[in-house]
Design a protein that fits this description.
Order of helices and strands: H
Low-confidence stretches: none
Number of strands: 0
Number of helices: 1
Number of domains: 1
Strand content: under 5%
Length: 44
């Protein structure tokens, strides 16, 4: 019983870390794209 709970806790924490990491990388990608768009608008 204890090992099942431990494995479930590990799985949940790993999924949480993965979701946070993907959210952060998506935010970084969006900010980089907005910077490129701003440079493009300034060039015009």
């Amino acid at each position: 019983m204890f090992t099942i709970l431990t494995v479930l806790t590990l799985f949940i924490s790993i999924m949480f870390v993965v979701s946070v990491a993907s959210t952060i990388s998506a935010l970084h990608r969006e900010s980089e794209e907005s910077k490129k768009l701003n440079k493009h608008h300034k060039a015009l």
